[in-house]
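Reply to dn_fold:

You asked what the input looked like. This is it:
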Amino acid sequence: MINRLTKIFLVILGYLIILSAVANIFDADFGWHLRSGRDTLSGAFPYLDTYTYSYYGQPWTNHEWGGDIVFWLVYSTFGYFALPILVSACVWLSLLGAIKIFSGRLSVAEILAGLIGAGAISYLLAPRLAFVVPILLVYLLFTLEKKKYWYLWPVILWLWSVMHGSWILGFIVINIYLFGNLASIILQKYFPNFSGQYSDWTKRDFLKNIFWQIISAIAVCLNPYGLKIWQEVGQYLSPQYFKDVVNEWLPSYVYPIYPWPLVIAAVSAVIIVIAYRKKRATAAQVLLFAAIFFATWQAKRQAFYLVIVSLPIIAIAINICAKDIAQKYFSENIIRWTKIIIIFLALAGSIFILTKIHFTNDIWPDKQY
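and this is what came back:
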């Protein structure tokens, strides 16, 4: 009972930490997202840019058109504050979901690791669609790690593609697992000492991966823009384009520097290398971590994804250490009282954070923003 209560109060605390970050900042693009969603539902689909003065009337591919509809429906039905609630839920579920996929459960120590991750990315958070869609990445990782439900990829990737332009990351992750498992099988055969945890992928798994990727790529084209959605997202693969026009695409080593996601990743890098050498991590997992780390180093806006792939590594390590320490040095009574203290601290922290959250359903006359 005490263990369950500890988890519940820590989960509530983590959610409120994220909500306080999302609710206390205004996204400068928020207005046109609402307008786009409203215009789309009224029949004026945005094939041309009518929101940007310097680009007015030019052809436009809005890669968030579906997400704009969702935001407008939520906003117009429930008011502004419903959006921070929704975004915060997606962020927290993404962090906890990623931990659970790789650890198999959520212990008190692992939820504490989730709190570390929530604090590390709090500077990034805002009521934006970019923080809704990572939950789709987490589900995609679930299908890849468990080797099940691959037939849902077309649905997942189509939904991602209508919500936000980061959907290309889904295909990148799928191919990381494809080539990571292929590399693992080759290493197992010729260099077994360097193969990491053995891959259980069969020839049928590789063929299924390719088949459902192709179906997903076709499904993504089922949108009002057709093939243009692929052309638009292709610009993402040209980093210089975004570095010229969007500040958040600047590298992580450019001022202002936000160190905590990089610190978490640095610790995770050491742990995953050790785990790989001990055959407790797969080549695909190492490649995934390396790819997201590189992407974040090149563009600081990817830090959220870096924390998502780093947290399971940190959480599992913390859980193992906590178990070993508890077994060697603490009695059951001490552990129980420690959890009771954690409950009271989490409750006090939650109450304090609630006083700092800016509750509003009408942001337009609100001078705080």
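The chain has 15 helices and no strands.
Hope that clears it up.
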